[in-house]
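Two quick folds needed for the group meeting slides. Do the first one here.
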Amino acid sequence: MSVTAFQFAHRDRYIGQIDKIVRSQTLRKAESLCRLLRYLAEHAVSHPGTPLKEYQIATEVFGRPQNFDPQSDSAIRVQMGRLRLKLLDYYSHEGANDLIVVEIPPGSYLLTFNDREQGDSASPAPALPHSTPINQPLLLPAVAPRRKNRPWMLATGALSLLLIMALVTAGLLYSDLNSVRKKSASAIAVQPALRHFWAQFVEGKDAPWVVFSNAAFVGRPETGMRYLNPSKDGSDLILDYYTGVGEVLAVHELDKLFTDLKHPIDVKRGSLFTLDDAKKTDLIFVGSPAENLALSDLPGSQEFVFKRAASGPRAGDLGIANIHPEPGQDSMFYPSGPSQPLAEDYAIVALVPGLSSGHRILILAGTSTLGTQAAVEYVCQDDAVKELLRRLGVHDSDNVGPFEALLRVKVTRGVPVGTELIAVRTRLK
């Protein structure tokens, strides 16, 4: 069944199928493809038959800037190709018996839902007539004598042989397709801009440390938790073993990237981090100083600084202060207000010198857990990093020096769907 108005009556079934695919082993590690699949599915059931433009997907799903040019940037076509391969893989294995088949026809961005056709059931045997007397013979339908038809038998045998050969060929082609897909995915993950940006973190033998925030809370999950207030709360009430979903997904994204770069990372939670650790290797901090308290004792950002409003309508809210605003820029950037769903957040990407010579610290942090996730995803995408290097004036032969960047993050239904680079500052080492 193609995408029609009939889908509105089956919205829950179709979205349920999308949820099943997203949770599958095939797509569970492909966060960006899951986001794309959900977007296409939502469009399909909400706007049946309405065309989707490459530009629309680029800006609304992947956070590309408003000047995105599909003619010169093939990133969306690549992602769509990867998603088609994932769907093919899913329905060849985990979803082989699913009743709903999700497809994206080649050359189109419109997702379709098709009900899998069921095989015709075997015809039932004729029922015995209940009125047949016991001592009378049962009359069965006459059966025509079987005729010998050697040409038909030969043709059937030949067709069977051709079918077997076709299945073997398809199997070999699918195996090659999987190999190409894996190589292609690896190639996409290690594009030149990404390698250039991360070169200083993979050039040594030591694994950089990824330090994720896990703030100190008080209370219980059953009754509600809040951030620890040291001036009022005792240390015996502290819960420091919770972290945000954005930090979890961020660490996962970094792990995938460094796997493709063939370099290890070590992961440590912020509450167990010490200053002695900071002198040993390069550091990647995931989360703001408001939650990643270890950052407060280390070199941090100087141009874009996390700060809570002391007064005014946003008093107590965490924002990012723009210390030296350029003409036309705001001096403070706040996320969506606490009384409304989070639709906009801000985050920083800052590279600063480490405590010991030759080491560096990369800070990836938002005012919320989703802003932090967006900051990490930004530096794990080749197109985004390419834009950042261009704004920094870094050429192919240059090392990436200390800098600070401010990002605006668009959030939809608890997922960061768009990231815009709105300000960049370089700084002396």
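Then this one, please, same format:
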Amino acid sequence: MATRGKRYRGLYEKIEKNSSSSVDEAVEIIKQTRSAKFDESVDIAVKLGIDPKQADQQIRGSLVLPHGTGKDLRVLVFAKDEKAAEAKEAGADYAGFQDMLDKIENEHWLEFDVAIATPDVMAEVGKLGKFLGPRGLMPTPKMGTVTNDVAKVVKESKSGRVEIKNDKGSVIHAQVGKSSFDAQKIRENMVFVLSWLRKMKPQSSKGDFFRKVSVSNTMGPSVNIDLSSVREAVKGFEGGM
């Protein structure tokens, strides 16, 4: 088992082992335990009451956080002619078709964070699966990254759009901001994600949907959040909509 460093152990001492904090307390702890020399990401992990082996219980989609992620994403759009120009005008870092395909296939170039494609080019883009698939960069209709409305998706990606997909352990991981964000912005982004997840609960999922929720800085220990506080926060958010 790996030995934790002195800095990590010092942060962990601020969190009572096996305890659960309210949503507000967890955000405050995140703010107090930031210590890296860079602006750490704040990430939420949610264990869901789903069977990931069942196709009808997969959680997959995208949403735009109220306060963004704080990360400047590099966006590539696979599109031809007018759609490529539309994407560039909307703020895409790269846009094109054959030139982009050739660059990825021949140079193994993958210097982008989000890939979007128009439906008419997906047959060719799909051939890049061995490059894009392992890195989670393949455009898909379920994630909203195969679309003719490229301008909208480019703007959303630049302003804080996050893609969400459960892993094999029924866990969702998502960035909900940066440690430099004020506490209220982190909280609102967190609760927004939780509310979105609750609305995505499959009808075939039985029992409690939220099984475990935790939040952490990139370089810090995770803070478990009391599930009753999660339910209250989501209820309060949706009641105020």
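Slide caption for protein two: Strands lie at 41-48, 60-64, 75-78, 94-96, 114-117, 161-165, 171-178, 210-217, 223-225.
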